[in-house]
Structure formats: C-alpha cells, structure tokens
Specification:
CATH architecture of the largest domain: 3-Layer(aba) Sandwich
Number of strands: 13
Radius of gyration: 23 Å
CATH class of the largest domain: Alpha Beta
Helix content: 40-55%
Strand content: 5-15%
Structural class: alpha/beta
Amino acid sequence: MVHTGVDRVEWAYLEWCLSLDRPVFALVRTALGYLLLDRRGMAFFHEHLRAASWGKPDLLSRLALKLSPARKAGESALRKQAIARSTRSRLQTMIARAFPNGALYLNTGHSNLSRRVFKAFRANKSSKSVVLIHDMIPLDWPDFQRPGTVEQFEKRMRTVSEFADALICNSQQTLDDTTRHMQRFGRVPAGIVAHLGIDVPSVEEADLPLVPAPYVMVVGTIEPRKNHALLLDVWEQWANDGDTPPPHLVICGNRGWNNEAVFARLDAAKTAGLPISEFNGLGDAEMMGLLKGAKAALFPSFVEGFGLPQAEALALGVPIICSDLGIYREILGDFPVYAEKPNAYVWRTEIEKLLQKDSIGLGRVDEDPALFTPPRWDRHFNLVLKHFG
C-alpha cells in the first residue's frame, strides 16, 4: 500500500487510538450511511486495510453500482464489524445512543467535515469536536487544484469554522494561514500547534528497481505544485551542455492532475535517453530503500503543507535540496540546502556542490556530528492529550 502524506497521518492516529487504555471508536461514512466501530472493529479495519484484503462484497454493496470493487468489499466487511449503523438522517440518534455522556470527536483527514456530523455531536453539550488542519493550500494556491476542489475545500473549512470546538494545526504556518482564512469566514476556533511525527524509516529487504549510480531522487505525486518541471529543465540543459553528465534522476510518485505538459516531457525524456527514471506506485519499503541509496533528495515545490518525505530523507541520512519555504525552515531548520531561486542554473549549481562534497565524504547528514532529530509522534500525541484528553 502506498500512503500519501494525509494517509500517513490518519494511519498514525489509528494506531495511536488503538494503543490508548480508554474506550475508542471510529465513525465510518459509507455509501449507505454511517457505521460505528468499537476497538475490535478498528483493529479489524487496521489489519485488513494494511493487507488490502476484505473478502467478497455483500448484496447491499453489489447493488451500489457506482462503487469501486475495493470499496464494495471494504464497506461489506466493516458492516459486519459495526456495533451500530444508521442512515444519514438518523446519525444524530445513533450518536446520542452510543455516547449519552458525550464524546471527543477527532477528525484528522480533511474529509467527512459535514454539518450533519458536527451537529450530531454538538447535540450533546458534553461532546467536543476537534479537527486536525493539514494546510490551506487549496485556498492560497487555487491554480494547482483539480476542478471543483477549491469550492469543496472552502465549504469544508467554513463548516469547521462554524462548528469545530478546537483545531490542531501541524505547524505555526498552518495555524497562521488557517486564522487568516477563518477570520474571513467569521469565526476562528481555538487552535494549537502540534508538529507531525515521522516513523524513522527502517529500510527493509526489498526488491529495488535497478537504477544507475550515482542517482538523486525526488519523492511525491507528480502534480504542478511539486514543480517537477524545474528538474526537467535542469536535466535537459545539463545533458546538452557537453560538460560532465548529470547524475541519474529518480522520480518516485504517481502521476497526478493538471500536469499533462510535464507528463509529455517525462515521456519524451525517456525516449531521448536522458538519465531519468520514473517509478509509480512503489511501496514504502521500495521507496525507502531507493531513498537510502540516493546521493541527495530534491524538493523544488512551490508550496508544501508540512514535509514528511523531506524529514524522512534527513532521518535516513540523505541530504536534501529544497525550495526556500517557510514551512521547511520551521520543521527542518538549517539541515537542508535551500535553493533560494527557482531556476535551473541555481538548482544545478547546488546539486553539483552537494555531489562534490559527497565525493570527499562531507555530503551526507549521517556523517555530520549535528545529526538531524526528526519530529516524533509521541510528542505530537502528548500535546493532543494535554489539551483534549
């Protein structure tokens, strides 16, 4: 299974909830309404989600013709595990019966942020709703979004502004951006800053794709805001100028949206024999194995919400070159090489300098006496418990 950044956060929260010595539940929205899972159901969900194995869909799911086969099977399996079920219109009744003394509702994924759900918990005055905000990128960078997603995102954030009791923001920058937008909406819920954590990657034995050495790597969905176009500019110019050849560029990530020009350039680069490899759909073990062997990881993004892959690279001892973004300064400090200008000459210069350092043993973070200390999940969750537990 390949996890995006938000997926990783939701996965960490699921495992944390399962570790708590208190009653925990999960609210699952399905095509036919809502399911409530207890700890046993959540453990079942955790196990089968990782294995992506759900069994055969039941009759109800088979009748939902618009659902994907995986979702049909998943919803069928979870219905069997649910301790309560409701239609959309009966959600408030289900919540009231399950939690007569109130509950803490944690939403961690920017989905299911509906008035219906918030009202169901607000009906009991002892309940509290807390939302984790990942970023405000769709509102600040609308040109990088898929059609319709900006309006949908703003509707969700307006609902959070109106109904949430409190916010967890993954960075000070996210809190500042959220405050700015929610002031415009009319209400800003109280918020705390809790940096996300990373699980320091353990590079497992895995069948790694064969890549010519030396190579550098970029990790992330191939979408406009990640600015893969800049790296293609660098490699096209570098390969054609007659000097030393560029290192191999390894691009790891699925193809996203609104990026047909970059996809066409990638296809043309392979045809032209440029030293570029593209890998879509790699699992975590394969991706981390490739990253561990890279001379550097490159992140020329125009904007980022946090920077989990960047922190993971540094935790593996791989030096990184990235855009000079405030979020990187907040989370990663002085460990990256910051390329201050988004042009091919500056990036090529920084890459060459880093490769020269590496050739004499000075390029890797794990050889620096001031080792990078990655942000930790236990610190994040301790803050959450302190404020809301």
